[in-house]
Amino acid sequence: MLESVVRRPQRLLFALIAFMVVLFFTTYLSLSSWGSEQVRTHFETLKAAFNKNATQAAVHAQNEIASTISIGGQPSQAFMDGIKTIDDLRKYAVKGEDGNLYPPTFVPSEVNKLPRAKAGFIVLVRNNELEDMRKSMRDVEDRFNRKYGYPWIFLNNEPFTEEFKQGVKKMTRSEVRFGFIGPEMWGYPDWIDQTRAAESRKKMAEEGVIYGWSESYRHMCRFQSGFFWRHNLTMDLDYYWRVEPGIQLFCDLDYDPFVFMELNDKKYGFTISLHEYVKTIPTLWDRTKEFMKMHPDYLAKDHALHFMTDEPERLLEPGYNMCHFWSNFEIADLRFWRGQKYTEYFDYLDKAGGFFYERWGDAPVHSIAAVLFLNRSQIHHFNDIGYFHGPWTHCPLNRPKFHDNGKCLCNPEDSADYNDFMCMKEWWRTSIEGDPNQRS
Ligand SMILES: *[C@@H]1O[C@H](CO)[C@@H](O)[C@H](O)[C@H]1NC(C)=O
Ligand SMILES: *[C@@H]1O[C@H](CO)[C@@H](O)[C@H](O)[C@H]1NC(C)=O
Ligand SMILES: *[C@@H]1O[C@H](CO)[C@@H](O)[C@H](O)[C@H]1NC(C)=O
């Protein structure tokens, strides 16, 4: 024995280590209040960490429990047929630090293995809107995103504060990105006469035009028209859902709206449509007519002009009825904005200066482009997404379908759908689907 240690000194080291380990455990057991029980738990944790099969089995068990995902209306096949009773589950339960046995936990977006679209939430927001932002996120996560885990992309023309970043991170388990909007996307292009822009703001302030006085509102509208879809942080996405601080969602969304868009070749989705204030866009339609004269081939074969004029057969001639999709909510295809037709249209409008000399909103700009360049089947009204953005509410009207089953929490009587300021009847006369409330 001694001789072998002398011949191989490393054996002494092994013996020493073995001795230390035994000493450590005996001390541990005698000091620990629930002794061997705790050691057992620790060993099980270790075993689970090193035994990949155990981990996989646990995931399968979780899938089993959460397999309420329905495919084509049918509940999907259970993953682990072996587990039938709560007793079967016992071996997958985990002892908590309080000593109780906890059933396997699961993160819905991880259990939901359905393929995802390349999509995310795009939010333009200021540091001082943190609390309203958190409320919006709460609704979006509860009603939809917990089950899918799409990323959040926050953009700001000022640097985000640490407080803001931490505040929104705490509202989601998804990836969160923070992007800065530089002066090339939020500032005056060199062809803009800033004196003339200031005069326009002064005039609109006197006339009481909504946000007419605000310089940053105009930069915002220009950014939302021409730049969010080519910002670095959004370039890897095909689809986006635009979310603003202070919105509310009223209904569970039990399917993936991005995948819906892809399945149906939809390019633009909205919830509320209404009339624009004439004073904010006095020349937008004229500039659009000029653009379309240069590019008559850009008009889609089955365009949706009936939404914007009573006589669609006369194309843009009858003038604009001010109907547009309210763009504070959008689920749309970024590739539509990135495409040649829209890019050229935006550039033409930008050169005309109406974002600054008038107060062109991104909503009518997006809407006109969608109506002209898309087939009407590619524009979608998300009737099933109950939505509030002050002061308007859209709440689905069909009670058996949306209310009696616990899906939505809103009052159909608050829904603005049939309000005269809205443009839903103009949309329903245009769309292929028609008024969902007239459907049986
Ligand atoms: C681990 O899982 C694989 C496949 O799931 C299986 O073939 C293998 O036998 C398992 N190993 C053990 C030790 O259970
Ligand atoms: C995007 O990234 C490129 C390369 O990293 C950089 O040159 C450019 O300034 C970035 N643009 C924005 C808007 O952040
Ligand atoms: C509109 O539909 C026609 C066929 O009716 C098709 O040729 C055209 O590409 C579609 N337009 C767009 C923008 O998808």
Topology:
Blueprint: H1 2-7, H2 10-31, H3 35-50, H4 52-65, E1 70-71, E2 74-75, H5 86-89, E3 94-95, E4 101-102, H6 108-111, E5 119-124, H7 130-143, E6 152-156, H8 162-169, E7 176-180, H9 194-207, H10 215-226, E8 239-242, E9 248-249, H11 257-264, E10 268-270, E11 273-275, H12 284-294, E12 323-325, E13 330-333, H13 334-338, H14 340-352, H15 354-357, H16 362-373, E14 379-381, E15 387-389, E16 392-394, H17 399-402, H18 424-430
The structure holds 2-acetamido-2-deoxy-beta-D-glucopyranose (3 copies).
The site of one 2-acetamido-2-deoxy-beta-D-glucopyranose has 3 residues, from loops.
Summarize, please:
The protein is built from 18 helices and 16 strands.
Radius of gyration: 29 Å
Give the overall pLDDT as a whole number: 88
Ligands, ions, cofactors: 2-acetamido-2-deoxy-beta-D-glucopyranose
- The fourth-level CATH homologous superfamily of the largest domain is Spore Coat Polysaccharide Biosynthesis Protein SpsA, Chain A
- Characterize the biggest β-sheet: 7 strands, mixed
Find the count of extended strands (DSSP E, 2+ residues): 16
Structural class: alpha/beta
Which fold name fills CATH's third level, the topology of the largest domain? Answer: Spore Coat Polysaccharide Biosynthesis Protein SpsA, Chain A
Shape: globular
Helix content, binned percent? 40-55%
For the record, give the distance between the C-alpha atoms at the N and C termini, rounded to a whole number.
Answer: 92 Å
The low-confidence runs, each spanning 5 or more residues with pLDDT under 50, are: 32-39, 64-80
Q: Strand order within the widest sheet? A: 7-6-5-8-13-10-14
Count of the domains: 2
Tally of separate helices: 18
CATH structural class of the largest domain: Alpha Beta
CATH architecture field of the largest domain:
Alpha-Beta Complex
> Strand content of the residues, in percent?
5-15%
Transmembrane segments: 12-31
Organism: Malassezia brasiliensis
Protein name: Glycosyltransferase family 15 protein
Keywords: Membrane, Transferase, Transmembrane, Transmembrane helix
